[in-house]
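Table 4 source record.
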Amino acid sequence: MATPQRKSPVRTSPLAWCLRVGIGSLCLLAGPLAAQTAAGAPALDMQPALMAASAQDAGMAPALARDSLLEALSCRTDLTDMPGLLGRLREERPADFIQAQRQYATPMMDSYRLRDAVSAWGSRSDTVVITDDRVLLAIAGDMPAVTAELEKHLQASADAPLAAALDEQHALVVYQSDQPGLQDLVLVGCEYRLPGLSLLQSAYPDISLPSPVSPANVATRATP
């Protein structure tokens, strides 16, 4: 009698699972692609796997010049370096970060238009959005298209060390924006889980911050 063959389990990526079960407009991953455990609504929170490795562990040569923006977008900024992030961005990219293109109050977030587009998580854009604890790339397109590119990027990293260290303190976030000026854009980037972190409050210590405004009102904030 022939022995029945066992079928190999079908691997489902975290992003596909998140979109299929309809958790909501926000997908959130913390941990490498191999982790498959969901931690409840409203966001998908992937527990970190013990096998996570960094590019440094694999002996990859570091970049000659530091790019704080790309590091922050890809979850490679250490929490101890987060409070001074906006100051470093202004030093490294003065033409891009000297003035916020748009400012929002609910929730607090600034958007910046870059002279040259940058790539992160499989997509490319010239618009960066910064909240109190997130650094995001604003990508033109819909959620299915953007998450498909993101999934390809993550799967391509599955057989090699991920460029980002996703853990309890660094989480990949993906969600559709409905803010004025950001409609029809998908925000992809990193959430930094540092208690009390406020990138926007610490970004302009030498000026008075404007009073909060409604999401429909957009203000421009300049630094000296």
